[in-house]
Amino acid sequence: MLTDEQITKKKKFAGEKKISMKRRDDHHDYTERRMYMITIEVEGRRPVFGHLTGDPFAAAGSGNEARIVLSELGEAVQHEWMAIHGYYPQIEVMGVQMMPDHMHGILFVKAQLPVHLGQVISGFKAGCRKAVKALQEKAKRRAGMATAMTTEIATAKPLPTEKLTAEKAGPQANCQGAKSLLSAQQGQGENSLLSSQQAAAVPLQPPTYRPLFAKGYNDLILRSYDELPTWLNYLHDNPRRLMLKRARPAFLRPFFNLPIGTHTYNGIGNRQLLAAPRRLAVRLSRRLTESDIEREIARHLAAAKAGTVLVSPAISPAEKRVMRTVFDAGYPTIVLMENGFTPLSKPHGEQFYACAKGTLLMLSPWEHHNDKRKLTATQCQQLNLMALEISNSQP
Q: What is the CATH T-level fold of the domain 17-132+211-243, as seen in this structure?
């Protein structure tokens, strides 16, 4: 663990803090015993690891669940990830989920690492680059064999019987004889060689070099073992989440610069909730007794059942309990948040599925940040006034 003096010295010369999910935790020693979830993106988000298939609404165990069918490259990269333990016996690979344009993996550092975790990830990327080169060489060999076969077919002399038949039957028979010879020779090698058309489609050498992975990586540090089942479920459920995003993009992709009343918001969720005929701002005092809170929960739940959309930043304990009760019951809610969104932001856990169903809209009037911030009294007042404005604004 870094000392306070080391952290202060490091921050002094660090320059302006970058808004990035790929920054490391300044307060953490990345060689110590800990568990991490790592996310690595393909450069340019190219879907080179495989493709998505299945049904996002299929029941678990039905055999038709959403899943990723890996490409040859995807299989090679997954193999490299699982091989990390062979290079660093201090690390146990807990899991991996390949996606078309990125990957998630969980690593358990069981003993002190001799290097920073970042060097482990760099070594993994280097191994993947070697795998890419090997696949490219393999493709070249295949293309060369197919080209040689095509040349052989083009220069092959007709058999004596075929030549005699062609002379008697004319040009048309010549064409047919050539086709039959082509089919025969292609059939002999169809299991190991590419057809001439496939060979033409295989680039012998890419016109320009593109790195496989984007720079850096994102890491999450396990703070409690209670989080591990959540992590593992997240990896397993990622293909289904991606399929839902593609099926309902308007509900699950972030949007920006949405004017509502006198403010502009970014957010994620069902924007049609803003057009609900009845919207109610939830603003409750911190001084409410337990019986008061129970009455407020019953009152707001009845309003939600009648079609009212509740709007709140859910700051006070009473507001949190009211909004949680209505949310758990599956009724629509609009939640105001202090932290904003990025183009790659996505809702997590229960919020994801609520957005997919169209029962949740999350809004923020401020830009995204990676810092842990507490709401100020001024921000609390502002968010409550915004909730009131949203509830009273014209659809």
A: Alpha-Beta Plaits (3.30.70)
Rg, the chain, Cα only: 30
- 190-208 residue pLDDT tens: 343 334 344 344 444 444 5
Q: Do domains 17-132+211-243 and 250-392 have the same CATH topology?
A: no
User: How many angstroms separate the first and last alpha carbons of the chain?
Assistant: 53
Q: Give the angle subtended at the CA of 340 by the CAs of 339 and 342, to the nearest 5°.
A: 135
Number of residues assigned to the chain:
395
The pLDDT tens digits of the residues spanning 148-188 come to 777 766 666 655 544 444 444 444 444 444 344 334 444 44
Residues β-bridged to residue 334? 311, 361
Task: Report CA dihedral (384, 390, 391, 392) to the nearest 10 degrees.
Answer: 110
Distance CA 54, CA 240 (A): 9
* Token pair in block for residue 76: 């090679």
Domain ranges (residues) in the chain? 17-132+211-243, 250-392
